[in-house]
Amino acid sequence: MIRIAAALRRTFGVVREHVGTDHFGNKYYNIPKQKTWSGRVVGAKRIVEAANPIEFEYVEGSIPTEWDAWIRGRRKEPPSMEEMMKNERSRQLVKLKAEEVEENDKVLQTKEIEEGLVASSRTVAKGHASAANFGKEDISEEPTSTANTFQPGSWVPKPKK
């Protein structure tokens, strides 16, 4: 029986076994290890046939993580629909908890600002404290140097008298 299947594969091309379909409509196939007509052994492969095959329309997340793990060989068995639904519910729960924590954090921050426990605006430092021109608004005409850095001076023409 195996020899007949191998002869058919060599005659009609690659045989692929449909493993499953996700909720986006992508179809997943397993191509078993097989010999070509010349006798060369081709290893087993896992492929996906995208529901939207246009390459530039691919967006991140159009292949579920469970199927991505199967395609890349990180799991032996393809995911079941129950497993995918369970994982989706847990992802939604994590999103809701993250939104709740972020909202509580914003409330706490505004409360601390009102009580004067933290500064209301952030101080933005321009440059590095070890630089020779740190804190200076104008750039001098003289070049400056600190350790391994060199700041060339800026030449400004003198106004005509």
Strand content: 15-25%
Average pLDDT, rounded to a whole number, is 78
Spans of 5+ residues with little confidence (pLDDT < 50)? none
How many DSSP-defined strands? 7
* Percent in helix: 25-40%
Short structural description:
With 161 residues, the protein is an alpha+beta fold. It has helices at 2-12, 65-71, 81-115; strands at residues 17-21, 27-31, 34-35, 41-42, 45-49, 144-146, 149-151. 2% of the residues are buried.
What key attributes describe this structure?
single chain; 161 residues; alpha+beta; two-stranded antiparallel ribbon; 7 strands; elongated
Describe this structure in words.
By secondary structure, this protein is an alpha+beta fold. 33% of the residues lie in helices and 16% in strands. It contains 3 helices and 7 strands; from the N terminus they run αβββββααββ. The protein has helices at residues 2-12, 65-71, 81-115, and strands spanning 17-21, 27-31, 34-35, 41-42, 45-49, 144-146, 149-151. The strands form 3 sheets. It has a 3-stranded antiparallel sheet, with helices on one face. A hairpin with a 5-residue loop joins strand 3 and strand 4 (41-42). The longest helix is centred in the middle third of the chain and has 35 residues, at 81-115. The chain is elongated, with a radius of gyration of 32 Å. It starts with a helix and ends in a 10-residue tail after the last strand. The mean pLDDT is 78.
